[in-house]
Amino acid sequence: MSPKSLPPRRRVVLKLSGEALRERGSTDNISPEIVDRIASEVASAMEQGGLELGIVVGGGNFWRGASASARGMDRATADYVGMLATVMNALALQGALEDKGVPCVVQSAIEMKNVAETFIRRKASRHLSEGRVVIFAAGTGSPFFSTDTTAALRASEMGADVVLKATMVDGVYDSDPKKNPAAKRFERISFSECIAKQLKVMDATAFSLCMDNHIPIVIFDLTPPGNVTTALMGGDIGTVVDGGQ
């Protein structure tokens, strides 16, 4: 099954890694040019009409809680720092989207009413229904959960049709394509296979949530211009992870 043969997409959750917002080799944590390009591609998809979009953005361009924990920092504290990093990325993306004329709201799982709405499921769903992009920030609000899991959780809560994970590779491989030139890319793979093979494109909790709620995942390369729009519009791109039926 290709992405084109998935059910029609109306409500979508797009997962962006924090690292994708940083220019390679740059000391700047956020590249305004990259954020602007992503916003332009989102705006292009929204202009087509009929799309309800939630976005989850990571914070790895600023901070990674697991890495800090491995260096001796309390894990819960490290994760809370990482959640705050995602808020910075969310606000940068919100500003870029609003510059393109896209109505956009940031909802934070940690209350910070001066800069973002507090996440309320029914309110978020209403924003989506009324045509506003909702950026879900601060992860789940609890430590020990990744932003991949956040994307799966918010997709489940919002009744999304699909999770689109924008990465730095063009799909799911049977081994690391950067280390193994002969690595095989899957066009389609099941949740159970990803978990059994310990493929690291998303964590097991995220896979399990999407599997339990019958939400397919499309994993695609963010880097080529136009790919975000293609993915949002249901184009044939990346690898589909689903129930495998």
CATH topology: Carbamate kinase
Q: Helical segment tally?
A: 8
Mean pLDDT, to the nearest integer, reads 91
SSE-based structural type: alpha/beta
Main β-sheet description: 9 strands, mixed
**Unreliable runs:** none
What is the general shape? globular
CATH fourth-tier homologous superfamily: Acetylglutamate kinase-like
Structure description:
There is one protein chain. With 245 residues, the chain is an alpha/beta fold. It has one domain (3-242): 3-Layer(aba) Sandwich (Carbamate kinase). It is 36% helix and 19% strand. The chain has eight helices and eleven strands. The protein has helices at 32-47, 65-70, 75-99, 121-129, 147-158, 191-196, 204-212, 227-232; strands at 11-16, 52-57, 104-108, 117-118, 133-137, 162-167, 172-173, 185-186, 188-190, 217-221, 239-242. The strands form two sheets. Strands 4-3-5-2-1-6-10-11-9 form a nine-stranded mixed beta sheet, sandwiched between helices. Strands 7-8 form a two-stranded antiparallel sheet. The longest helix has 25 residues, at 75-99. The radius of gyration is 17 Å and the shape is globular. The model has no long low-confidence stretch (mean pLDDT 91).
